Amino acid sequence: MLEHLARKLTRKEKQGSSVEFDSSGPVPNHLAVIMDGNGRWAKMRNLPRIAGHRAGMKTVKEIVKASDEIGVKYLTMYAFSTENWKRPREEVDFLMKLPQEFLSTELEELIERNVQIRMVGSKDELPAHTLKALETAEERTKQNTGLQLIFALNYGGRKEIALAVKDIGTRLQAGEIDLEQLDEEMISRHLYTSDIPDPDLLIRTSGELRLSNFMLWQLAYTELWFTDVLWPDFTREHLYQAIAEYQGRARRYGAV
Ligand code: IPE
Ligand code: IPE
Ligand code: MG
């Protein structure tokens, strides 16, 4: 299936045509991506896993540009989960260097594109160099009004909800709020994504059909799209294909 699709796309690209979505139709306001399959991509080539992460970084660059060009307003990229610390030390070290590497080559262009860079996740456990790269990027792009590029780094959906509950509990204890005020809206406002709308479309690559602790609260009514394509092989054509399918979905939100 995967190879079949890849062949089909290659053939189409050679013919000069490409996958199309309706450019006057709805484009997801918030696109969230679980970038998965870097390790398997490398393994298939007898390369170390980190080679897959480096290749995956190129895909990030391409998908950021493509998303910006088609009018996505918020793009969240799941780059490192709270569970990914379980990986071998060398791999974690490499992943923690990727934000610097990415930003050192991309930040100027992203500034030119009016992109605002942000991070969601727990900053506490991050190495100082990783945090510094991200905070510099956040600081230098905070006035930008274009695409919001959000890196989910050391992000865990359950941790995020637990922290929100703790914050709300503290405010309750201090008498700043009443129990009657506690509703969905209040919980949303205490998440990392307090000022970010819920994702409209979630893409996960590499054939895994799970959320892996990503945006558990926010994905309640998100359209899900899975592909067998590994993240380093993911192209803008695949993105267009996902958007074309998104445009064909009926979002009912429980109504008829
Ligand atoms: C996704 O690729 C990147 C991160 C989770 C950081 P993986 O590294 O999970 O690749 P696979 O799933 O092992 O192929
Ligand atoms: C999810 O991928 C995390 C990121 C893409 C950053 P994983 O590869 O860590 O997920 P599992 O372990 O297969 O569920
Ligand atoms: Mg994986």
From TrEMBL:
Cofactor: Mg(2+)
Cellular component, GO annotation: cytosol
EC number: 2.5.1.-
GO molecular function ontology, one term from the record: ditrans,polycis-undecaprenyl-diphosphate synthase [(2E,6E)-farnesyl-diphosphate specific] activity
Catalytic residues identified in the record: 36, 84 (proton acceptor)
Subunit-structure text: Homodimer.
Entry protein name: Isoprenyl transferase
